[in-house]
């Protein structure tokens, strides 16, 4: 409901993922609860999802319905997450705005005169508007970091090849910098939880090219700001 409300105002959702209600029923019967149990998760348009298109904002991909979920979607589901919407991007995704000829312009919910940034702009707008609490964007040259900044959110661009790629093999260009998927949310703890959930055996088995290194909670905690030495405190 919230996602629909936000979408009406800022035009950030490209598709609702059918079957998410069935998935919730299936989850309730499972004995083991994953780290993302019951959390609705929004995903960027180009991440492959069974029965849906990955348009990249380009008309030529509109007829190509994907036959299987990309690894990240499989892992999110394995951890109890519920991918429920796909979100808007700029055409070709090499842009810091968020507009394309198919789905139109996405606006910034904090100021409708402004852009939410790109290319994960639909994610930024939906999460900032209160329509999602956790989303998956992607970043080559700022595509998670810019919308996170423009929309007042937290985002993480992981190290290259840390998370299995989106599964779209139709990319019309080759990039010199590795594109990576990463989480976007309202706080850092949500990003950490998402990374911890993604970096699991399931991911390493489904994509053997991803180094099987789990999330290191200690490294994150070492990054916590500490008080200055007593003699510097005023």
How would you describe what is shown here?
- The chain is of the alpha/beta class and 234 residues long.
- The protein has a single domain, classed as Amidase signature (AS) domain (Amidase signature (AS) enzymes).
- It contains eight helices and eight strands.
- Helix 3 links the parallel strand 2 and strand 3 (82-87).
- The longest helix has 11 residues, at 188-198.
- The chain is globular, with a radius of gyration of 18 Å.
- The N and C termini lie far apart (49 Å).
- The mean pLDDT is 91.
Looking at this protein, list some descriptive labels.
234 residues; single chain; Amidase signature (AS) enzymes; 8 strands; alpha/beta
Can you tell me the overall shape? globular
From the N-terminal CA to the C-terminal CA, the straight-line distance is 49 Å
Instruction: Tell me the helix content.
Output: 25-40%
Q: How do the strands of the widest beta sheet line up side by side?
A: 1-3-2-6-8-7
Whole-number tally of structural domains: 1
Q: In terms of per-residue confidence, which ranges show pLDDT below 50 for 5 or more consecutive residues?
A: none
Helix segment tally: 8
The main pleated sheet reads as: 6 strands, mixed
The helix-and-strand class reads alpha/beta
Which whole number gives the mean pLDDT?
91
Highest-level CATH class: Alpha Beta
In percent, how much strand structure appears in the residues?
A: 5-15%
The CATH topology is given as: Amidase signature (AS) enzymes
GO molecular function: amidase activity; fatty acid amide hydrolase activity
Keywords: Hydrolase
InterPro entries: Amidase_CS, Amidase_dom, AS_sf, Endocannabinoid_amidase
Pfam families: Amidase
